[in-house]
Amino acid sequence: MGLTSGSTGSGVLNCCGLHIEKETPADKIVALAGNPNVGKSTVFNSLTGLNQHTGNWPGKTVVNAQGKYRHHGNNFILVDIPGTYSLMANSTEEEIARDFICFGRPDAVVVVADATCLERNLNLVLQTMEITDKVVLCVNLMDEAKKKKIRINLDLISSQLGIPVVGTSARSGKGLDQLMDAVASLTDGSIESKPLHVAYTDQIENAVSMPEPALVKILRGRISSRWVSLKLLDGDESLLQSLKEYLGYDLMQDDEISHKVTEARNFLEAAGISTDRLRDQVVTRIVMTCEDIGRKTIKFEEKEYAARDSKIDKILTSKLTGIPIMIALLFGVFWLTITGANYPSKLIATGLFALQGRLSGLFQAISVPAWLSGLLVDGMYRTLAWVVSVMLPPMAIFFPLFTLLEDSGYLPRIAFNLDNFFRKACAHGKQALTMCMGFGCNAAGVIGCRIIDSPRERLIATITNNFVPCNGRFPTLIAVITMFFAGTMMGPYKSASLTLILTGVIVLGVIMTLLISKLLSKTILKGMPSSFNLELPPYRRPQIGRVIVRSILDRTIFVLGRAVAVAAPAGLIIWTLANVHVGGLSLLNHCAGFLDPFARLLGMDGYILFAFILGFPANEIVMPIIIMSYTAAGSLIDFSSLVQLHALLVNHGWTWLTAVCVMLFSLMHWPCGTTCLTIKKETQSLKWTLVSFAVPTVTGIVVCMIVAGIARLLGLA
């Protein structure tokens, strides 16, 4: 398939993974393009609802979202291509967006723009119109523009651009029917658009016209020959590679095209226009065109424009108040998560563990061997019950709260506040966002590292993501803090002090993230931080219902499913170690005894260290394994109160130093099995997976040794 030297112009585009399968020939493929934070995903979700699925673009770690929408009897397949500021292919996202528009054969491209900063968004619109004439402009966030006294003449913009233009407020669903009406009319030929072509200088226009006739004969309208001619003059290596890959034909191997391109470049050089100047002049002319259209079609009152957002940002992004407010919000989120998860967690645990008794009775009734019943019920099922009861309630609270902050526009402000710290650590400012994602689940945080374009900085973010504790480590941290540091408080003061100490531990994790990022950037991942444009979106009122549904379906259930898949075999292993005896002691006791001398150096004991090792599949089961080991039980058990648990731990030698070292090691040790698997998939490298495993582990060992050594040296333990 594809254009070849023997079939120039007569072949079929070979999309190599960019091709979207249609259920029927009548289906229409619609690409959704747009800058980040313009509501593109909101448009996509509002139209497709639950009729969507996600994956990765072939060979890329960038999300591919597709969905179906039926409009007036016609089926549309919507493809949410990566958010990008331009199609100049300076990043993976830009390359994918450009290639899909060029080679994915969409029947229409809807460019979603932000009505509150439309002039800047028109840059992407004009670049898209240079590639295809099947473009619809969706001016989203019209409600926000109205609040800011911005008046946009949509009809005049349509006549200026020569394409359909529709205003929408996707969050409330306004204008989406009209948008799909325009898409349907464009795809069925009811209307014919005549897109504006940016007029460059006479020298550039003359140079573009030289190779264009030869390209017309080969491309035959499949791709804009004018645009390809401009890109060949620009020497866009990324596009040349994509053309070669997707068309099956190297255009520069054609003698006529190669000759004409050389002739055009010589013409430009003679006019004093180098390749770099050509690119600058092209970008400048596009920007000037955007400004000209903006002046004619957009009116706003300077005093009102963005006044509210500016006032809020003066507080939330201030050097004086930005960080304290961020920490206070973090405190609030964790306080709500901790206090809100207690009751449902106990309720779920009671129900699941009650079912365990019935399962045991069923196995006895059908004469299942005792060892097999213990393996499946006391081992696998009880471990799964622990993971579900401990993980589900906190995640069901934390992820919606996190998504509300994201939906309101606050998360980019966190990245803004922390950008300077990460730049000093020679890391990327976007790492702040991936770090925030890690609070819910480190595997999700690793996936979030895709937003960082630089491979070096993406690796730094991946390796250090485990320094922020996930939901799986909260139970251990909360239990230890409550028993040894906040247990003397009563009522609301107890919850507040617990949350305050937990917030302090998390801040320590952030500090360690910065320190280790700095160390990595000066050693195995040397380099300077790359610059990036951080778009601060307008503040918006979160849609609570949609946020809850999306966070529970897309995040909570997804992460819980992965944890369950990893924890199930772990339950079998733990039960086996606790129930197979050699020389009068279980294998678990033998292993703990072997580890004990080293664990003592870390301020812990062999049972604790071995519990962390067995907790590799799921951090939630670390504390239950410690309890099981101390009580010599053959399966994971729970205590009815933390008072009983505190007495058990103290009887087995726990002191305040033990508690501190357990907290530090819980904060800084190897990633869980789910995260390691995710790192392997994201980096496609066993080496970097092992590095991601080793860095936090070595850090935790060193920190615990130092703390335990100093405490003993000072006679405090």
What does this structure look like?
The chain has helices at residues 40-48, 92-103, 118-131, 142-147, 154-161, 176-187, 202-209, 212-219, 225-234, 237-247, 255-270, 275-297, 307-316, 322-365, 370-408, 411-424, 431-440, 442-448, 455-464, 474-484, 491-522, 544-579, 587-601, 606-614, 622-631, 642-651, 656-667, 673-683, 686-713, and strands at residues 28-34, 52-56, 63-71, 74-80, 108-114, 135-140, 150-152, 165-167, 298-300, 581-582, 585-586. It is of the alpha/beta class. It has 3 domains: 11-187, 3-Layer(aba) Sandwich (Rossmann fold); 202-300, Helix Hairpins (Orthogonal Bundle), CATH 1.10.287; 322-713, no CATH class. Strand 3 and strand 4 (74-80) form a beta hairpin. Helix 27 (656-667) runs antiparallel to helix 29. The protein is elongated, with a radius of gyration of 30 Å. It starts with 27 loop residues before the first strand and ends with a helix.
Q: Main attributes?
A:
single chain, 717 residues, alpha/beta, Rossmann fold, Helix Hairpins, 3 domains, 29 helices, disordered N terminus
Gyration radius over CA: 30 Å
Structural class: alpha/beta
In DSSP terms, counting alpha (H) and pi (I) runs of 4 or more, how many helices?
Answer: 29
Q: Detail the poorly predicted runs.
A: 1-16
Major sheet: arrangement of strands: 2-3-4-1-5-6-8
Strand percentage: 5-15%
* Helical proportion, percent range: 55-70%
Compute the average pLDDT.
82
